[in-house]
Each structure stands twice: as C-alpha cells, then as structure tokens.
C-alpha cells in the first residue's frame, strides 16, 4: 500500500508548492494512471514515492517504509523506469548479471518471456540497440524484477506501435494482487484499457484521484452527433459531433471512461 | 452518424465471449481461457476481465470449477440468445419503436419490412 | 543485528562492487591505462633524453675528467631525479583529478536515478566510491609510478641506480616531512572528492576555481597579517623554538582536514535528491 498524508513539496527557488497538502492512498493490486499537463508535477510525485525527493512536510509510506530512508529493503521492492533511461554499453547478459542480485523476486524466465514479447533476443548488446529497443530491454528487465511497486514515467514514449501492444501485454502478465503499478503518461490512448485507478494532477496539486469503477458509476461519457439537452457538464466538438460528459443517474447504463474527456473536464474547471 | 460503442470494457468483453460461444469457438462444457489469459490477449486490466467473467457467471453462461477454470455452461447458447433477445426487445427497442411511432409506421408495414429483409438474406 | 544488516552487508557490498565494475569496465580500464600511460610516457621521454644526450655526455666527461661510463651514470642519475620530480607533480595532480571523479556517477539526472535506486545502503555505495577513487586512485598512481621506474631501469640496462635514488630520498626526508607530504597529496584527493560531491558535473574545474578563490582569499588575509609587524616577529621566534611541534600540528591539521572532507562529502551524499540546488540538470 502506498499512502501519502498531507505531503507538500516545493522546488528550490520556486514561489509555491508544486504539491501542497496532498493525501492519497493506494491499496495493492492496482494499475494507476497518473495524468497531468507538462510541469504538473507527475514526476515529482513519482520521485517522492521512490525516495528521490524529500517531502517538505507530511508522511510518505510505501508498504511500511519511508522512502526517504532509502533502506536497501525498500529499494529492492521498488523499481522506477524513468523517461530517459541510463543503460551502459555492455551486453544485456552482463547487465542482468550485475543488477538482478539486488532484486530477490527477479525471474530469469519472466525476463526471457518479456524479451520474447518485445521481439528481442537474449543475446543482445545494449550498446548496439536503437533507443526504442533499449527502452524495451529495460522495461523487460524492470518487469522481470517483480518488485511489489513499479513506477513508470512515460513508458510508451519511444515505443513503436507493436511495442505499445507488447508493453500492455507484458504489464498485464506481470500483474497480481500484491503489485502496484503507477504509470505517468500523456498517451492515455496507449494505456486506458489497463488502468483501474486514475490520478489527475495540475501544477496546483491533485485534481482527481479515483478508481475507474467509481468513475464509471459517477459519470456518463458519450459521443453523439447532437448534444443531449440537459445535464451536460462538459463537451467538446469532435469529428462528426460532440464528445460529452454528464453526471450519471443510477438507472443509466455504465459507459467506459473516456480519459481524454475526463482530463479536459478536470483541466477546464478552474477550481 | 457516429457509431461508437462506449459501453464499459467489461461489458464488451463479456459480449465478445458470448459471441465466441455462439460462433461455436467455445464448445459447451469446454474450458475457456482463464481471466489472466484473456486479460493478456486483450491487453486489458485483469480486474476488468474478472468483472466480465463475473457477469457471465452470474448469468449462468459460464460456470467455475475450482482449480480448473471456467467452462461453458450446457445451455449457454440458448441462455445467451434469450438474454440478447430480452435486451433487444427491451431497452434497445424502446428508442426504435418510439421513432417508428413518430413516423406513424403501422405494425403491418413493420412486418412486411422484416419479411423482405429475411427473404433478401436467403 | 537487524539494523547492522540493513546498513552494511558484505554480500550486498560485493554485489555492488561487481556491478560497478561490470557496468563501467571500459571506463576503469581507460582510467588505469591513462594513469600508467602518463608515467610510462614520462619515463620513456626521460630515458630517451638521457640516452640521446651523447654530446653533453662527452662534455661532462671532459669537464669532470671522468670516464665516459661515469658521465653516463651521472647523466642518468640527474635524469632520474627529473623523473622523481615529475612524478611528484603527476601524483599530486593525478590525485586531484581522480578525486574529482569520485561522484561522477551522479553527474546527470539519469545517472542519479540509476545510482540512487540501486538496492544497497547509502553507506555501502559511499564506501565503494571511496575505495575506488581514494584508495584505488592512490594504488593505481603508485603502480604507474613504479612501472615508470621499471621502464627507466630497463632503458638504463638494469642496475640499482633508481632504487638508490629512492633510498636517498627516504633518508633525506624525515618521517614528519614524508607524512606531511603524503597528507598534503591526499588532501588534494579529499578536497576534490568533496568538490565532486557538491558539483559532480565538470567537477575538477569548479573545485579548482573554488579552491583557488579560497587560496587567494587566504593569501590576502595572510598578507594583511604579515603587514602587522607586531604579529610577525614573535611568530617567527615561536616558530624557531617549536618547529618540530609546528610540523606535527600541521600534520594533525591536515589529517583532520582530510577526514573532514570525507565527512562533509558523506553528509552531502546521504542527502542527495534528484533535483538539488548546487546541481544544474
């Protein structure tokens, strides 16, 4: 379980908190989407959870650990896939041999499987790969470490189209009730069918933090040539008509959450 | 005219499994892929896939054998047809009939149209 | 016992070391070859210049009335002195350069993420850097130094010539002088290591600028103090009476400064965040 209680963080030299008095609780077994405009602080949140940044105030707790303590036990239970990956120019074999001893749940078989999905041979040399392939190799390793917490910052950036689909499969395969995966992204379309929880941030803080199931209960998302007469809380013209959002009444059938619409709705509300 | 299916993923997945049963891809009393396998092949969250299976189990279309997985029920095909017919004649037909009524279509015209349709499909 | 394992585990430490060398193998090889190469190049140049210098050998022989062989020995001796002199410079500068690389693994944001997220304790990671760049630096410089000596020995056709020079130096220097010099050289390493912890990127130049600035300030302060004749004369008299004590005070001060550098480097290291005031990107 990941919990943040009244956490604030302010960047050095900044006039205001980039995250202020924020509280959030995530039980395990969830794939969480972290959305927000550029500069909204998505990476900040990931860094606070992984202990790379110290909260100005408040408590961060990840499975009983304070990330800032950076205890080796904590670090072996968390894996961060940053947006830009730092891979040395050595063979994948050597890389895995060097770093897998630090992760007690690492599985050689999972690695082979993930590499297979990503269409990479196990005999590759990291220096000889293209950027997209390097990302895939790193993702394969990250997934094979089977850490209870997995954080990914824009994981589908740089992946080709088959790669995005391979990525989804690999993520779903690795999922279980003890894992929490947080994916920070702009590319909602790559990932929306994977998520069961959504957190939307802007530069003033967290704007929305809810499960997909709850959102399906609360809102109706639609696409129609003409806007419904009443109850529309947000709409936007799209090809052939309008995308819209309404509050849902219990008698209405549930619709799939349109994350882009939700995002735009949240951002258009200057609350 | 925008044709989109914005039903939740779990509903669409359940539908897809029903389609496969009707198309005889999954035979009665045979095992269907597990929740996990389905989630991976469709690239959806396992919880979502689990919800789809839950619906089908509740409807009686599939049943669970502990430790072995999910199986197609004996009378799954009939059950699915019945459910779909109810849905068609229920919510989905409300809108259709209301439009017909506004355009003052008579029951005879409707019957003729349906007969013609069936003939042309032969 | 739990806490002890959590902070330091020999298995984890050896995994960390193996990982560090596996991942950065080519960099370390380049570094060692560079160090040895510098000494070897200097040794070769000196040996060659000694051998080529035949005209001046005849001149020396003629002037001193000694044989050609003796003149050769004399020339070789003065050239190997040059080697020692140059070695001292190389060692001192080399220690600062190696010191400035101590935290080069934290230079970019990407590298910091990798380095900080490795599941080992901060102290293990810190000690590893210390061992490689302080102890390892000294050892590789010494290896380079002795390889250079070996080259000169070979060029001079063997003989105990160069070894003699070493014993000469040791006899000439007192223990306190040698200790002081060693600590001074190590200070270069420690200071630049501290600089590396503050500014891991383009560390050597930044540290050099700050140290030079401090030295300039120190020199200016000393100048003003020196102009106070009242302070100066008694100081010199005190110095004459207590020279041995003064040297050991300096040695103690140097030792403390070395330790302080590493302590401050540790404080800085243990609090490192992915985005810091002193670091740019």
Question: How does this model look, in words?
Answer:
The complex is a heterotrimer of chains A (271), B (122) and C (281). By secondary structure, chain A is an alpha/beta fold. Chain A has helices at 42-50, 72-75, 92-99, 108-117, 131-144, 161-174, 188-191, 212-218, 259-268; strands at 2-9, 19-26, 31-36, 57-62, 78-81, 149-153, 180-184, 197-202, 205-211, 219-224, 232-238, 241-247. In chain A, 30% of the residues lie in helices and 28% in strands. In chain A, the strands form 3 sheets. In chain A, strands 5-6-7-3-8-9 form a 6-stranded mixed sheet, with helices on both faces. In chain A, α4 runs antiparallel to α5 and α5 (131-144) runs parallel beside α6. Chain A is globular and about 65 Å long. The model of chain A has no long low-confidence stretch (mean pLDDT 90). By secondary structure, chain B is mainly α. Chain B has 2 domains: 9-76, Orthogonal Bundle (Arc Repressor Mutant, subunit A), CATH 1.10.10.10; 85-121. Chain B is 64% helix and 7% strand. Chain B has helices spanning 9-22, 35-42, 46-59, 76-102, 107-121; strands at residues 62-65, 69-72. Chain B has a two-stranded antiparallel sheet. The radius of gyration of chain B is 18 Å and the shape is elongated. The two termini of chain B are 29 Å apart. Chain C has one domain (22-270). In chain C, α5 packs parallel to α9 (175-198), α9 (175-198) crosses α10 (203-226) and α9 runs parallel beside α12. Chain C is built from 12 helices and no strands. Chain C has helices at 2-7, 10-23, 25-52, 54-64, 68-100, 109-117, 122-155, 161-172, 175-198, 203-226, 229-241, 243-270. Chain C is mostly helical. Chains A and C meet through α2, β5 and α3 of A and α2 and α6 of C.
Concise description?
The complex is a heterotrimer of chains A (271), B (122) and C (281). With 122 residues, chain B is mostly helical.
CATH class of the largest domain in chain B: Mainly Alpha
CATH topology of the largest domain in chain A: Rossmann fold
- Count of strand segments of chain B: 2
Major sheet details of chain A:
6 strands, mixed
Oligomer: heterotrimer
Sequence of secondary-structure elements of chain A: EEEHEHEHHHEHEHEEHEEEH
Largest interface: A-C, 33 and 32 residues
